[in-house]
Amino acid sequence: MAPARQEENGENGTELTERQEQVAAALAAGATVARVCRECRVGVQTVYTWKRSPAFNARVAALRRDLTERALGRLSDMMAGAALDRLQKLFRAKNEGVQLEAVKTVYELFLQVTSTVELRTRIEELEAARPKGKR
Length: 135
Description:
Homeodomain phBC6A51-type domain-containing protein
């Protein structure tokens, strides 16, 4: 068994213990504190103590971002496939008005996505250039 002091990791910016990682993952996935305590065999007060730790909260947030990005990726893949199938049908429509609206919609979406990607890249560049203590 690990020394008791290791269970306090994360409070002073150090790496989290394996148990803290399990709790952080469960919280990031949306589990309640009560459920986390039962499933991870951790006391309620311990979880609330960890939740006061900036390092622990940062890990929960990072795990939640990862989960969200994966879910969005899967959803995006699913929607993109269906949307492309539908667009192909619209592009081949006999009605030229329908074809034109499909092209305009795709073009507008392309512009929005391009702007969003460019903006996100610029924000990341600015954040990377910012001095560490000024965040």
